[in-house]
Amino acid sequence: MKTRVVVLISGSGSNLQALIDAAANADYPAQIVAVISNKSDAYGLVRAQNSGIATAVLDHKAFASREEFDAALRDKIDSYQPDLVVLAGFMRILTADFVNHYLGRMLNIHPSLLPLYPGLHTHRRAIEAGDATHGATVHFVTAELDGGPAVVQAEVPVEQGDTEELLAKRVLAQEHRIYPLAVRWFADGDLVFRDGKAWYKGDVIPASGIKFK
Ligand code: GRF
Q1: How many Cα atoms within 13 Å fall on the side-chain side of residue 111?
Q2: Best mutation site among 15, 108, 124, 171 for ligand 1 pocket (most ligand atoms within 8 Å of CB)
Q3: What pLDDT is recorded for position 213?
Q4: If exposure means fewest CB atoms within 10 Å of the residue's CB, which of 94, 134, 147, 153 is most exposed?
Q5: Pairing mode, if any, of strands 133-140 and 54-57?
Q6: Which amino acids are annotated catalytic?
Q7: If you measure from the C-alpha of residue 4 to the centroid of ligand 1, how many angstroms do you get, rounded to a whole number?
Q8: Sign of the Cα pseudo-torsion (111, 115, 119, 120, in order)
Q9: Which pTM value belongs to this model?
Q10: 93 C-alpha to ligand 1 centroid (Å)
């Protein structure tokens, strides 16, 4: 039985596409059972439909509070009985109740070498700081924003004259490699969350994640 994955998006869904492409291989241990967006015009919904994956839209603006939205989102997600929830450019702050409901079975990808630069505008911040390297991190989601234990991290050199857009594009290319890998590890049972930490094949993963080469 393949691991059932629900992917949450808000936009382009290029990471979703990387997961769809990975899951198209017969030996990939996970299947995407649904894609849910809080935005009806998210291009990722088209990507999902093109691949015959169920989609749903839950517009956060239709709810009176964050708590009500998160409760409805949780019900929608759980209707697909996922083993794993994957945040792929889902641009919402989540309530602690929601996060705790999926503790140990929800992953996020963030475009920085966490713990550097949680939050937005990570590429700009890395360039402005004069960093030599930037990158992306897959991590388990905990109640602290972009603060859960890291799983895998890919480094990208910052080049002379880099713009936010150029750097973002190169980081995104690495995101598309590490996210399907992390989902594969989880589905294979090699990656687990225990005692607030991420573990790979029985060892605690270092704070900055497994380095992806
Ligand atoms: C990615 O940069 C991801 O790291 C961040 O949001 C962006 C989503 O891009 N969380 P896409 O929708 O997967 O193309």
Answers
A1: 23
A2: 15
A3: 84
A4: 147
A5: unpaired
A6: 110
A7: 21
A8: negative
A9: 0.98
A10: 15
Query: What local confidence, expressed as pLDDT, does residue 34 receive?
Result: 98
Q: Residue 33 above 90 pLDDT?
A: yes
Which stretch of DSSP H or E encloses residue 85?
A: strand 84-87
Question: Can you give the C-alpha Rg of the chain in angstroms?
Answer: 16
Separation of alpha carbons 44 and 89, rounded Å: 10
Rounded Cα distance, 160 and 58, in Å: 42
Domain boundaries, position 72:
3-211
Distance from residue 195's CA to the centre of ligand 1 (Å):
28
Q: In what order do the strands lie in the sheet with 54-57?
A: 54-57, 30-37, 3-9, 84-87, 106-110, 133-140, 150-157, 210-212
> Mean pLDDT for the chain?
97
For residues 119 and 146, the answer to whether their CB atoms sit within 8 Å is yes
The pocket around ligand 1, CB under 6 angstroms, is made up of 9, 11-16, 88-89, 109-111, 136, 172, 175
Total domains present in the chain: 1
For 99-147, how does the pLDDT look when each residue is reduced to its tens digit (9 = 90+)? 999 999 999 999 999 999 999 999 999 999 999 999 999 999 999 989 9
CATH number at 152 reads 3.40.50.170
